[in-house]
Specification:
Elements lengths: L1 E6 L5 H12 L2 E4 H14 L7 H9 L3 E6 L2 E6 L2 E2 L7 H10 L3 H14 L5 E5 L2 H5 L5 E6 L2 H14 L6 H17 L12 E4 L5 H19 L1
Parallel strand pairs: 1-6, 1-7, 2-6, 7-8
Antiparallel strand pairs: 3-4, 4-5
Helix pairs in contact: 1-9, 2-4, 2-5, 4-8, 7-8
The structure holds 2'-deoxycytidine-5'-monophosphate.
Length: about 220
């Protein structure tokens, strides 16, 4: 079974995906973390985002692994745990430009399909219901107001010891939303058959209950 969750940056996609994966004992795949790990590699190796040959070569040297330990989603880049580093500002600043590159998207989509083969997964991202798994069993498109999303991201970063002004957080989110939804390759958009969840005024529990109801209703219809 595939549950696809797409939506804007910092709107609670991963929180919902993790909770659903835990509830149903499915595998959680955070595809944003994969694009972030690629962006980190490009930063470290000063890969020119205009140079297709350099990008292709770099991608051949990138091996990603996702793992879940005690409820924490971990991301490994060539065997190194980069889960914390990929959340830093330097990565957030370039990741949307990296995620626009066709070669990068092709490799990530291939990875994502392979990781899900013969498994039940909850996958969150921007193009899961539209491109990676257009046949997903259940699709959600999650959203919240920009004020609420900025506040949540600000608190999340603060908790991780990363200090940023709230207006800087908001600017970064708006910039990424714009790049993600206007790029040519697989832009962020709601799949026609995705269930819309605006969680601005929902608690995490309420959001989980709503999503479970949708999944269980769907399963009843299918049986
Ligand atoms: O979900 P996130 O903020 O960690 O995602 C990081 C970036 O990766 C974001 O700018 C959008 C991009 N992304 C994407 O293009 N496709 C996905 N499936 C997941 C993320």
């Amino acid at each position: 079974m595939i549950i696809a969750i797409d939506g804007f940056s910092s709107c609670g996609k991963s929180t919902l995906a993790k909770a659903l994966a835990q509830f149903y004992d499915f595998i959680f795949i955070d595809t944003g973390a994969m694009y972030r790990a690629v962006a980190l590699y490009f930063l470290r190796h000063e890969v020119d985002l205009e140079n297709q040959v350099a990008i292709k070569e770099a991608l051949e040297n990138i091996h990603l692994q996702l793992d879940n330990q005690d409820g924490n989603a971990l991301t490994y880049l060539n065997g190194e745990d980069v889960s914390k580093e990929i959340r830093q500002r330097k990565v957030a600043d370039i990741v949307s430009d990296v995620a626009k590159i066709d070669l990068v998207r092709t490799k990530m989509v291939e990875y994502q399909r392979k990781m899900s083969k013969d498994k039940s997964v909850v996958m969150d991202g921007r193009d899961i219901g539209t491109v990676v798994f257009p046949e997903a069993d259940v699709k959600f498109f999650v959203t919240a107001t920009i004020e609420e999303r900025s506040k949540r991201r600000f608190l999340e970063l603060k908790q991780k010891g990363i200090m940023m002004e709230i207006h800087e957080v908001q600017q970064n989110l708006l910039k990424r939303d714009h790049i993600d939804s206007t790029r040519k390759n697989s832009p962020l958009k709601r799949a026609v058959d995705a269930f819309l969840i605006d969680n601005t005024y929902l608690s995490q529990e309420e959001q989980l209950d709503l999503a479970r109801k949708v999944i269980e209703d769907r399963a009843r219809v299918d049986n």
